[in-house]
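Page 47, continued from p. 46.
Same chain as before, 342 aa.
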Amino acid sequence: MKTDDFDFNLPEELIAQTPIEKRDASRLLVLDKKTGEISHRHFTDVIDYMEKGDTLVLNDTKVMPARLYGVKEETGAVIEVLLLKDEGNDVWECLTKPAKRIKEDTVVSFGNGKLKAICIEVLDEGIRKFKLEYKGILYEILDELGEMPLPPYIHEKLQEKDRYQTVYAKNVGSAAAPTAGLHFTEELLDKIKEKGVNIAYITLHVGLGTFRPVNVEDVSKHKMHSEYYVMSEETAELLNKTKENGHKIISVGTTSTRTLETIASLYNGKFEACSGWTNIFIYPGYQFKGINCLITNFHLPKSTLVMLVSALAGKDNIMKAYNEAIKEKYRFFSFGDSMLIK
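Result:
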């Protein structure tokens, strides 16, 4: 399977640069994975595809203001650092620009020395490990000095910080938002609960994989970066009960999907309370063990996310749906419209 098999021509004007005014006013393309049938709805109609006893799974990770601009102490050169992965003891794996200026023992200073990052290891692809030095609470310092790490294809400045967070974001630790969840409002979630649909939460802190293109020709040779996940006892019990009773597990986003499939793969199709690191890579040929349906956004050509949705719905169905979405001028990527694969 070739990476080019997942390419398509996307007009630049369809890449959403700003969030729509009302979260749940986005459009919804519904794709039936068995028949390939497509229908056009609004996001609030998503409730019509849920039944009493189904479980909707949300990723409650919260995005850190993880993009920092500092200066190299030796030379005063401006350095951009994106915090990606907390390795413990104030050691962080970071994406740096321009990376060639950062060698071992380089010190980058932020906010006139409020925060310092000392490079302790040089890795490939612009990745560096830094030991952070500061006084007080790191997340408070990041709130003051950091910016939301919007994806590279968004060129507009975000007016309201909370629009790159889901309304249920709780556990801080992501370098990017689980954007499929941005469409939900508190009111819509209340209506879903009133219908008798369960809502379950998992956490997966979104890391570098989100920013990485697939640079290999053969899909199977691509290596995913690891991301940290947590599933509680309560969520595991609820998901097992949902499956036993023959109801649907509806995953919100590729991050929730990767977590659910990681755990279901570990425990023979069942769920257990656990935490760990996953580098699961889902592409066509993969047999799903955890989820039945997926709510997701429209993804980049040749990305691991297009490969994941193709694994669930079939590549031909996805390419047909994407062509239809382009024809109908759906908005793409993080701040774009939504798709339900049922």
